[in-house]
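sorry to bug you again but im stuck and you know this stuff better than me. what follows is a protein written twice so to speak, once as letters and once as structure tokens for the fold. mainly i need to know what kind of three dimensional shape the backbone takes. anything you notice is useful, everything is just below:
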Amino acid sequence: MQTLAVLVQDNYIQDFMSYINNHSENITIKKDKNLELDPYFYERQKELHQIKNNIDSGKVEMIENNEFWDDIDRFVETLQK
């Protein structure tokens, strides 16, 4: 069995669902909760995994929380001058 994401035009959804119902022995519809909550879930997940891999491999350096906020504070100070 294969899993596919299918985009259906709003005005065609009834016809599409009729087709699915007529072929239900071969097709299973299952809502993906991840996509309901965030339509870009899988793209974001892939990007986050890539970021983590880059950090793990040393390709990207991750800074400490305190260092980050110190940089932000210094930046804000330059804006206020």
About this structure: Residues 41-57 form the longest helix (17 residues). The two ends are 63 Å apart (CA to CA). Residues 50 and 56 are 10 Å apart (CA to CA). The mean pLDDT is 92.
